[in-house]
Request: fold
Amino acid sequence: MALTAQRTLFEKIWDAHRVETLPGGPDVLAIDLHLLHEMTSPEAFDELDRRGLSVRHPGHSLAVMDHVVPTLPGEDAWTDFARGMAHDLRAHCARFGVPLLPFGDARQGIVHVIGPELGLTLPGSTVVCGDSHTSTHGALGAVAFGIGTSQVGHVLAEQALLADRPKTMRVRLTGTLGHGATGKDVALALISRHGNQFGAGYAVEYGGAVVEAMSVEQRMTLCNMSIEFGARMGLIAPDARTVEYVAARPFRPVGADWDAAVAEWNELHTDEGAAFDREITLDVNGLTPYVTWGTNPAHAIPLDGAVPDPDSLPTEAARESAHRALIYMDLAPGTPVREIAVDAAFIGSCTNGRIEDLRAAAEVLRGRRVAPGVRALVAPGSTAVRREAEHEGLDEVFRAAGFEWRGSGCSLCVAGNGDILPPGARAASSTNRNFEGRQGTGARTHLMSPACVAASAVAGHLAGPGDLA
Reply:
């Protein structure tokens, strides 16, 4: 394919990694960083064994334990399932020479937190993982996307991937966010406005003054939630904030390599006049905190709102989805959001488990206590985040407020590791998905920013920091 003079950020990165395009088929894409975790890698390693293959470039892969590891200490916290998954990952990594950050390692954490945190995710790179929220890494100006189990095996064997080139979409964010609004609220507003399949088949580039003003961690939240928009990936052009962030990471390039890398990153932007397959603008001027009321992230409204009447929605599909959601969530149309009581509050995940998220929540909790009957827990996104939070005394703030202070892991986001809500329990959660049963069979999830989750825990109902006396 001939290169045009003006290219998008996505096109620059994809083209630089495209080995070839198969006749009438997908591109062969070189992969810089392959992240693995215990849930999607065992079958891929087994396939290598069956075919007598080795890992082509072990140093370009990194495995972590995050999805099923317990967040409580002690051997008794491990389920048999989790122990078996961890054992298999250790054995496979040892056999194939793949670097592993095992449970208990000082650098262990959720895969999409530790990649940027360690400086392994770099602008202009390609990043894949057997996990849909790999789009998180796009916040650093990388082409990053989730892959299936068979593709995990392919990347291990070839350090390349057969991949269909996605279409491109630019989302311009204009205006100035209202008080208390975050990257999480921007994502929920975007998804609620356009639906959870609007981005299907697209690489979505976010731009505009709103994005430029966001911290890198807020950008990660936005790119993380791109998957809930239906997108293949989300990405943001690197800028001075990105360079400053990467400069503080342990595995960043150094010396002359650093200077050369920064020079390359400065060219990683969409050229003036480059064409996208689709462009939209979202005015977020005055945007206030959002919360979900239903069973997918598109079921989101401002915290000041009320549960919608399904019959008022514009399409039959939307009306049917809303009717089903209200039955599952046990909510009535017209109910003010702030009247919805919660039984649990969770802060963590690859979406909102970073140090800035914990700081924001702790600021709300200082001098306050969780409402009676509310179970509240926080699971830092990595061991390093946990260590920094403890250094700043945030753990003491959470404990004093009545939160359980946990270890690093996916925890209640996936409810597959002992952290599970009982049927009927309703949670304010800083995670990315409010699907039926996501946090436990019959459990009900309301997605919010970390600060709003903290406020809801104190109030005993869905709330924002401004609602607290």
Q: What stands out?
A: The chain has a mean pLDDT of 96.
